[in-house]
Here is the input.
Amino acid sequence: MDDLAALIEARFGLANEAGRDMAADGVLAQILGRRSFRKYSDEEVPEYMRAILLAAAQSASAKSDLQQYSIIDLRAQSSKDKLAELCATDWMKAAPVLLVFCGDIRRAQRIAEMRGKPYAQNTLDSFFNAAVDAALAIQSYVIAAEGAGLGTCCISQVRNDMAGVTELLGLPEGVYPVAGLCAGYPAEKRDVSLRLPPAAVVHTDTYSDARLETDIEGYDTRRNAIRPMSQMMTDKYGESDNYGWSENAARRLSVPEARHGFRAFLQSHGFDLE
Here is the structure.
């Protein structure tokens, strides 16, 4: 595309002047044009590039510089296969790079012990901080990987079977999986996914969703014009004549995810969550 304005228009499906006549190159263009990839070529990611991308992940912001996350780099094909089975996501097996980003308060606990100090922050807030630290590291890795010509896809399914994933990865108490990440050189073409309009997401000074219905109706229309969605849960809700992103989201959210034991697992795995 010619300029950043065109990339923003493609991202939202809306007319836009921001970025007009600004060249569509560099990091801004890369982020505005990003997409997820689930098919990769057989080309291996060189060891030096693996090291660079992991260094980029560790360059992310971290709450109070505590860096409460860890990264598990799965190299053995048997481990990749087992993780894919636990996630019920077969295409993961062929990813040249497969990482699991974990929230980690264990390291801080051990450091406190090493220095003869009590650890007084096993709280819900620390759990949240560790999750955010891991998420920031993931996004830094994604931006760096895509800048190096790789494609990526985040995997939330690593939380579907917490006990199984924890056992596979040897995660001790105080460490839990936040998300997986696959990476490799893309072997497919993918369109940019239309995002919610900025009016529905960005609020000035105070929160307001007064125009949400109008914004969502327009969003559904724009998405359907580009890529209609397959209807899900038709046995429960039937076929809809006006099926779009919002109906798909509402149906998905109408049943609990397979993670209803998440809190109990965390509490049994060293998190107080108070």
